[in-house]
C-alpha cells in the first residue's frame, strides 16, 4: 500500500519500533496487532495466513524507469506476486488447462523471432494470416490469465510511471503457470500490443532471461509483438508501395495496431529505412498523434479470472467473499475481475487488401 512503518503504526495505533521489530522477525506478531493492521488497511485477516507467491526474481519482467524508487518498484512486484498467487490458486482449484507454448533457446535473430511468433499463433489456434480479434481472450483460452491491476491507494496515474510501460509478465520455472498483467488499459491498440509484448516474454525468455541484457529482451519482445499481431506474409502485402501516414491509419483500423507500432514493423522488415522512420515520427509529432492517434481501437476486457471465480463462488461471484477466502485486499480482488458486460466486439477479420490495391481501387480514408 506504499505506507511507511510510521504511517502503518499510526494508522493501526501501535508503535513504529514494534512494526520494525515484527518486520525484521525480531518479535512475534500478536493477534491483536494483526487485527489492528487489518482494520486500518481494509485487508482481510486471511491475508496473514497465506504464503506469498514463490516467484524467482528474474521471471517477473517489466521495465523500470531510472527515476523509480526502490519502494515503488517493490510495490509493483508485491502487487503482481499477490495477483499471481491468487490466479494460480484459482486455476488449480477450477482445473484450467494450459496450452504449451513454444519456448526459445540460444541466440535469436529477427527471423527466429518471426518464426516463434508464427508458432505461437499455431499453438493458440489462431489462423496463420488473420487478424487476431481479441488478443487477451486468445491468451486466456491458452490458460494464461491476463489481469488488470491497481496499486492500492493510488490515483491510477502512478503505476505506469513506475513500471515504465503498462505491462508486466511473470512465470514460475519453465513449465509452471504464467500470467500477464497491465496497470493501465489506455487505448485498445496499445493494450493489444502490450499483451502481445508480454506474451513474447513468456515465449522468448523463460530459458534465456538469466544474463540477457534487459534492453535486448525488450527489443525482442517488441519484435515478437509486431510479428504476432501482423504476420510477415501479410505485412509484406500491407507494406507494398510508398507508405504515408494515411496508409498506416488504414492498416491500424484493419489490424488493431497503433500507427507507431506499424511504422516500427515496416522498419523491422526493411520496407522503410531509419531516415524515413524518423520522418514519419516527426510528422506524427507535428500532428499531435504521438500521444493521441486517430482511428479508435476499443480496449479489450479479460474474463478468465472472473470466470474462475464464477465457477467457485457462483454467478455473479461475491468478490468480498472471494477476497476473504483468497487472502487478497478487496480493491485488488475487484481489479482482477472486471465486469465484462461492456466489452466491445472483437476486430472484424475482413479480407486483407494491400495498400497498392487500395490505391488502384481509389479507396479513400478520412481521418477524423
Automatic annotation (TrEMBL):
Q: Where is the HTH cro/C1-type domain?
A: 2-48
Q: GO MF terms on file?
A: DNA binding
Keyword Nucleotide-binding attributed: no
The source's superkingdom equals Bacteria
Instruction: Supply the CDD domains for this chain.
Output: HTH_XRE
- One family from Pfam that matches here is Peptidase_M78
Q: Which UniProt keywords apply?
A: DNA-binding, Plasmid
Keyword Signal among record annotations? no
Q: Which family is this sequence assigned to?
A: Belongs to the short-chain fatty acyl-CoA assimilation regulator (ScfR) family.
PANTHER family according to UniProt: ANTITOXIN HIGA1 (PTHR43236), BLL7220 PROTEIN (PTHR43236:SF1)
Query: What is this protein's record name?
Result: DNA-binding protein
Amino acid at each position: 500500500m506504499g505506507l511507511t512503518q510510521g504511517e502503518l503504526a499510526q494508522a493501526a495505533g501501535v508503535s513504529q519500533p514494534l512494526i520494525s521489530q515484527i518486520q525484521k522477525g525480531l518479535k512475534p506478531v500478536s493477534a491483536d496487532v494483526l487485527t489492528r493492521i487489518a482494520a486500518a488497511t481494509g485487508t482481510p485477516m486471511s491475508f496473514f495466513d497465506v504464503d506469498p507467491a514463490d516467484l524467482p526474481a528474474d521471471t517477473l519482467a517489466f521495465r523500470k524507469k531510472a527515476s523509480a524508487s526502490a519502494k515503488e518498484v517493490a510495490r509493483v512486484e508485491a502487487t503482481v506476486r499477490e495477483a499471481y498467487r491468487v490466479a494460480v490458486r484459482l486455476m488449480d482449484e477450477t482445473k484450467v488447462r494450459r496450452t504449451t507454448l513454444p519456448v526459445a533457446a540460444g541466440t535469436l535473430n529477427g527471423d527466429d523471432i518471426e518464426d516463434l511468433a508464427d508458432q505461437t499463433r499455431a499453438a493458440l489456434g489462431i489462423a496463420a494470416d488473420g487478424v487476431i480479434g481479441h488478443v487477451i481472450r486468445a491468451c486466456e483460452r491458452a490458460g494464461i490469465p491476463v489481469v488488470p491491476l491497481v496499486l492500492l491507494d493510488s490515483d491510477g496515474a502512478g503505476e505506469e510511471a513506475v513500471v515504465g510501460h503498462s505491462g508486466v509478465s511473470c512465470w514460475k520455472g519453465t513449465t509452471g503457470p504464467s500470467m500477464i498483467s497491465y496497470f493501465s488499459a489506455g487505448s485498445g491498440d496499445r493494450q493489444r500490443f502490450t499483451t502481445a509484448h508480454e506474451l513474447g516474454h513468456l515465449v522468448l525468455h523463460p530459458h534465456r532471461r538469466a544474463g540477457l541484457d534487459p534492453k535486448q529482451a525488450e527489443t525482442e519482445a517488441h519484435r515478437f509483438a509486431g510479428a504476432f499481431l501482423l504476420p510477415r506474409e501479410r505485412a509484406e502485402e500491407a507494406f507494398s508501395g510508398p507508405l504515408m501516414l494515411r496508409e498506416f491509419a488504414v492498416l491500424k483500423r484493419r489490424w488493431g495496431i497503433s500507427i507507431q507500432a506499424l511504422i516500427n514493423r515496416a522498419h523491422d522488415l526493411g520496407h522503410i529505412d531509419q531516415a524515413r522512420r524518423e520522418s514519419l515520427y516527426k510528422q506524427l509529432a507535428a500532428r499531435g498523434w504521438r500521444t493521441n492517434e486517430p482511428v479508435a481501437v476499443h480496449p479489450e476486457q479479460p474474463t478468465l479470472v472472473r470466470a474462475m471465480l464464477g465457477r467457485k463462488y457462483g454467478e455473479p461471484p461475491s468478490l468480498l467473499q472471494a477476497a476473504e477466502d483468497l487472502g487478497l485486499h478487496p480493491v485488488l480482488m475487484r481489479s482482477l475481475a472486471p465486469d465484462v458486460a461492456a466489452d466491445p466486439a472483437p476486430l472484424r477479420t475482413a479480407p486483407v487488401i494491400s495498400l497498392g490495391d487500395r490505391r488502384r481501387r481509389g479507396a479513400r480514408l478520412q481521418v477524423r
